[in-house]
Known about the structure:
Blueprint: E1 2-5, E2 13-17, E3 35-37, E4 42-51, E5 56-64, E6 70-77, E7 81-82, E8 90-91, E9 104-107, E10 110-112, E11 115-122, E12 125-126, H1 128-133, H2 144-150, H3 154-162, E13 177-188, E14 193-200, E15 204-209, H4 211-215, H5 220-224, H6 228-248, H7 255-258, E16 265-272, E17 284-292, E18 299-301, E19 308-309, E20 314-322, E21 328-334
Parallel strand pairs: 1-6, 4-17
Antiparallel strand pairs: 1-2, 2-3, 4-5, 5-14, 6-13, 7-13, 8-15, 9-10, 9-14, 11-12, 11-13, 15-16, 16-21, 17-20, 18-21, 19-20
Amino acid sequence: MRSFILPLLSIFILIAVHDARANDSAAEQAAGGLVLVEAADVAMKREDLTITPDRIDVHYVFENESDEDQTLTVAFPLPPIEGDLAMTPLELPVAEVANFVGFTVSVDGRMIRPAVEERAFVGDREVTQELQRLRIPLNPMAAAVSDALAGLGKKDYARLEKAGIVTERDMASGLWRYEVRFHWEQTFPAHREVVVDHRYRPVRGSYFVDRYSLEEDPDYAAKYCVDAGTRKALRNLILQAAKELLAEDPDNNANLEDDPMSALGYSVVVPYILTTANNWAGPIGTFHLTIDKGAPTNIVSLCRDGIKKTGPTRFEWSATNFSPKRDLLVLFAAKDAAAFGLQ
């Protein structure tokens, strides 16, 4: 039996062996991959991808181009979560459960319930059983981890610390990597199409938009392809935030009168691994990208030439016989955190 995987923030890919990961940064987390091999017989005829600040929807049409039915193990890995990310602006939609992105999937219109596999690693060494034996949650960002570590005896904690699984006791946090994979068996009939739809909430990073981002950070414009028009819009967003803060509380925000650019805007970054489409039989037949920024006053920026605005909040881009050369990193910005459900 052959197997392949549907990566989070990405598309189906084939897997050969365990433990290869792809992370966009210490904040937003793109799909963890495994070592990839090519899918010689199953082609991606269509992919419709919709990205918003708080949800990703993907519609695929696959076709088995061989003369034989193929039953494959389809897997969907969530992005790996590193324990040392606890102090970064990483946001897990639901940190306390294995399905921390609310992943759902249907095949040919029928909802399925994949099996789930949870594992923990320090480097290449698996530490799942040791954590479970001590009743420590495998997700290092789960709130219950702190209580579990605090309740350990001196010998148990010292052993974990020596093994590099946890920090020093006065810090009491996990250092292991948490990996979750959903999987199910799927038959691809010969010369027939199979439709797969899935959705989830992205593991996104949250950041301020400030003067430094726009005027001093040499990487900001390149990373999100911020052109002159977008830079002006982001600057106006900061100025509008300053104006509203002054109106709400002029005494505590008096500094904004003389220096309105010292105010802050807010942004979230949503990553999506697109290049794994190259592991299928040939290019994507038809690819359609939709970006919805959520509100007309929000700002969006990404590295994709030719994208067109098709509505007050919607942007679209299409291609045929598409072989992606780079992954997507979508910046959404607003004048206040509430636009993205942030506190």
